[in-house]
Design goal:
The chain has a single domain (6-49), classed as Single Sheet (Rubrerythrin, domain 2), CATH 2.20.28.160. It is globular, with a radius of gyration of 12 Å. It has no helices and 5 strands. The chain is an all-beta fold. The strands form 2 sheets. A 3-stranded antiparallel β-sheet has the order 3-4-5, with no helix packed on it. Strands 1-2 form a two-stranded antiparallel ribbon. It binds zinc ion. Zinc ion binds next to loops.
Amino acid sequence: MSATASMIECPECGASFEASGLEAGEIIVCPECGVELEILTVNPVTVGLAPEEGEDWGE
Ligand SMILES: [Zn+2]
């Protein structure tokens, strides 16, 4: 596995930034607006807004 950096576009504020070493299910924080983003897939990289805390995770 290589540590290729991927461009991520924040769905909240539209900012683009690089991140590397991503894994599906990982939570990252947008450096622009601070929203938590969940890595959905890594090839290609897609992200979605992370579930808000306070929910019962259950698993
Ligand atoms: Zn953002």
